[in-house]
Amino acid sequence: MLWIIFLLLLFISSMEMLTQNRWKKQVSTGLLENCTGCVLCSEDNGCITCHHRLFLLIWRDGIRQYGVCVHTCPPGYFGLRGLEVNRCTKCRSPSCESCFSRDFCMKCKDKFYLHKGQCLRQCPPSTAPQPGTRECQEMCELGPWSEWSPCTHKGRTCGCKWGVETRVREAAGAPREEGAACPPLQETRKCRMRKHCPGEKAEPKNKGKKKQKKPKPDLHVGT
């Protein structure tokens, strides 16, 4: 009788061990297409822990939470390395395409401009939008224009019909950021000059015509 009970207990123990081994195998490998890079994987929740160099990305589908192991975090997330697990953490701003930390964006989505870690629809005053980089670039603070310079042509202020005059302005302060965009600091325009310089004789209108010699009067000497 005792040996029958012993065989029965042995059979029950073997079945439990077989079931546990199957569960462990499923947890560790799971469905291979859903558990790539996982150290521990659940059939219901995907990856639970990842290999050391990978990041754990957790996304939600309704009330369901699912994890996958990725080499790089997708847009809208940044990688945060920890002692036990590396995680993909979502950027706080929905207009942020990539971020350095949760509150500091590095690149914005389309129709937004980056300014000091924030994504804005319009650049603030004293900045200019840069379509190529989608950033708000600091502008120079400029002083007033100077008076127009004398009208000159090749260093001369007279003797020609047309010349140019120039005015300038200076940056009131150093740019707050390296590479700040500055508008033109100099302007030129065409101007009318004095054709004749002071002291120069005006050319006669009949220049080029030969002068006619006046006949000398006859001198009669009385005797």
Write the layout of secondary structure elements.
Layout: H1 2-29, E1 38-42, E2 46-50, E3 55-61, E4 64-70, E5 77-80, E6 87-90, E7 96-101, E8 104-108, E9 113-115, E10 118-120, E11 127-130, E12 135-138, E13 162-168, E14 186-192
Antiparallel strand pairs: 1-2, 3-4, 5-6, 7-8, 9-10, 11-12, 13-14
Polypeptide structure, described:
The protein has 223 residues and is mainly beta. It contains one helix and 14 strands, in the order H-E-E-E-E-E-E-E-E-E-E-E-E-E-E. The strands form seven sheets. The protein has a two-stranded antiparallel ribbon with strand order 1-2. The radius of gyration is 44 Å and the shape is rod-shaped.
Global Rg:
44 Å
Which spans of ≥5 residues are poorly predicted at pLDDT below 50? 19-32
How would a textbook summarize the main sheet? 2 strands, antiparallel
The structural class is mainly beta
Features:
223 residues; mainly beta; two-stranded antiparallel ribbon
Summarize the structure.
This protein has one helix and 14 strands. The protein has one helix spanning 2-29; strands at 38-42, 46-50, 55-61, 64-70, 77-80, 87-90, 96-101, 104-108, 113-115, 118-120, 127-130, 135-138, 162-168, 186-192. The protein is rod-shaped, with a radius of gyration of 44 Å.
